[in-house]
From TrEMBL:
The gene is kduI. Keywords: Isomerase, Metal-binding, Zinc. It catalyses: 5-dehydro-4-deoxy-D-glucuronate = 3-deoxy-D-glycero-2,5-hexodiulosonate. InterPro entries: KduI, KduI/IolB_isomerase, KduI_N, RmlC-like_jellyroll, RmlC_Cupin_sf. Signal peptide: none annotated. This is 4-deoxy-L-threo-5-hexosulose-uronate ketol-isomerase. One of its GO terms (molecular function) is zinc ion binding. Pathway: Glycan metabolism; pectin degradation; 2-dehydro-3-deoxy-D-gluconate from pectin: step 4/5. SUPFAM superfamilies: RmlC-like cupins (SSF51182). Its EC number is 5.3.1.17.
């Protein structure tokens, strides 16, 4: 069994005034997680946006246990936290305190606060699982529970004419898997559709993270960020993640179709709590 390093990188919060002077390189350093899935390891980043941790696990030949990390100053990772997991790879399992949960592609698992041991493994090294992780502080121990893609209340949105025909799957939310503050799900775009989250919105009451996947290696997503009247963009590849501050829009257009996980944490768990900006108002 592999337990990864106990030192976690930190992304400090960035204010609007500071962001306005960023170069492309600085934007990428502060808001893009480029290396999310590395063979037989856990990659995590601690952000100062609602104290959220974002990470990825790619177990191939070994099982990998979630370490406590010195940064957290706790005896185990989930002593004061909850954890959401979505598999975007081959079949695998997550073992929580001795109970094993099998996760195929696009299945999700919520792990409650107080769970002491979390271990990841793939069933087939030739088609390994890829577990995306999102963790936030928690004040209550909701039960650990799995939700399969088929049970995630899919909602079809958009249209072919506007290049945003897509299906949204909600996993951790008020009417799904219970949590303290995490809200998680994913969006799958139909072939030929490339736009996500347009009209754009912000929600000052919570941060958001995106993890793009099912994107061909030769293609990219142009992810829009910043306040609606001062937009910037980041060019994102497959299996990379975006950290979106509460003051920022989070939208994108790809050079081909793709899918992405979205996860939120903060004051409000209401999925529909969004402050929309008309397309005509974007700058």
């Amino acid at each position: 069994m592999i337990t990864d390093t106990t030192v976690m990188p930190i992304l400090h919060a960035v204010g609007l005034g500071e962001m306005q002077h960023f170069t492309t390189e600085k934007l990428r350093d502060h808001f893009l997680v480029e290396s999310l899935f590395e063979p037989d390891s856990i990659q995590t980043v601690y952000t100062h946006y609602d104290r959220v941790i974002v990470g990825g696990v790619l177990p191939i030949y070994d099982s990998i246990e979630l370490p406590p990390y010195d940064n957290l100053k706790t005896s185990f990772f989930l002593e004061r936290r909850e954890l959401g997991i979505i598999n975007v790879g081959g079949p695998g399992s997550v073992v929580v305190d001795g109970t094993s949960y099998s996760l195929t592609a696009l299945d999700a698992l919520y792990v409650g606060q107080g769970s002491r041991s979390v271990t990841f493994q793939s069933f087939d090294a030739g088609e390994p699982a890829r577990f995306f992780l999102m963790s936030a502080p928690a004040h209550y121990a909701h039960p650990t529970a799995k939700l399969a893609k088929e049970d995630a209340s899919p909602t079809r949105l958009g249209a072919r004419e506007t290049a945003n025909e897509r299906t949204i799957y909600k996993y951790i939310h008020a009417a799904g898997l219970a949590s303290c503050q995490l809200v998680m799900g994913l969006t799958v775009l139909e072939p030929g559709s490339v736009w996500n989250t347009m009209p754009a919105h912000v929600h000052d009451r919570r941060m958001e993270a995106y993890c793009y996947f099912d994107l061909h290696p030769d293609h990219r997503v142009f992810h829009l960020m910043g306040p609606p009247d001062q937009t910037r963009h980041l060019v994102v590849a497959n299996h990379q993640a975006i950290i979106s501050p509460p003051w920022s829009i989070h939208s994108g257009c790809g050079t081909s179709s793709y899918s992405f996980i979205w996860g939120m944490a903060g004051e409000n768990k209401d999925f529909a709590d969004m402050d929309f900006s008309p397309i005509s108002a974007l700058r």
